[in-house]
Amino acid sequence: MVHMVQTFRERWTRFWFKPVGPLNLGLCRVLFFGAFFLFYLPQDFRAWAEVSDSFWMPIDLFQILHVPVLSGGLLAAFQGVWKVSLALSSLGLFTRASTVTSFVLGVYLLGIPNNFGKTHHFDALVVIIFGIMALSHCGDGCSLDQLIRQARQRNTLSVQQPRISGEYTWPVRAVWVMFALIFFAAGLSKLRHSGLEWILSDNMAIMLIQHHYHTANADPLVSWGLRLAQHIWLTKLMAAATVAFEVGYPLALFSRRARWVIVPSVFFMQVGILVLMGPTFTQFLICNLFWIPWDRLSLRFAEGVDKLVLRKRLVSRNEPTKQGR
Description:
Number of domains: 2
Number of helices: 15
Radius of gyration: 24 Å
Number of strands: 0
Strand content: under 5%
Helix content: 55-70%
Largest sheet: none
């Protein structure tokens, strides 16, 4: 029993704090904040200042802290600072301050639309990841801050090698856990409130038809859903797969084989919902980048470039010999 507890503790600690370099977390930061800078750049939050107070139904956070909707001018200033902080976070300049600013202002700006009678699920994960990155050492790799530190170290003749630490593991794992909790809760909710009827009934077929009548935030991209709804056995299979992947999502945390199946399947499931039903999951799709081992991919890419350069050098050396012959 003691051995089992010790083994579990070691595996649990390794899951969260496996010593790695800063490269993967740094690349996740670059891509995550860069993608959301481009995503939110055209959005203007000033319109929320013009919504009538009669529609104001604050969520718990805004109600407890008595947070109001600011004037259009202040919202313009806030969103300007926020978007700049997203860009700086991606570049890794003043990383700690920029990521904290992205989180604090993101909580407010992205939280405002949830206070008018409908709580949205699109941006919640994004805000949580903002918080995770603000608490992490994500600026230690692939950042302008890192280049500045290295330049200063060269001037003082004390260049330090990148350290290996579990500090670069837990932020990525925390994002994984959030994905697992969200999808597991979604699958469990289906089974809790509807039971197996969510799968065995005509529920999926009805939803495929229903979303062609402007019931979501966007319309389906194609009309294939209407054709699929005519094949009840196929819609039941789709419903079963949906629940299975959602309830089984936590397996992706600990099993590499399950990860290769579940994570891409749920990703394309959300793409399928977008295509067949209309609801958009752009933010969720972007956040999936934390599942990709960017450090390994960058290493393989660098190795491939080195091999290509070496081949070109060998070819260039052999050409004079052939010409001489």
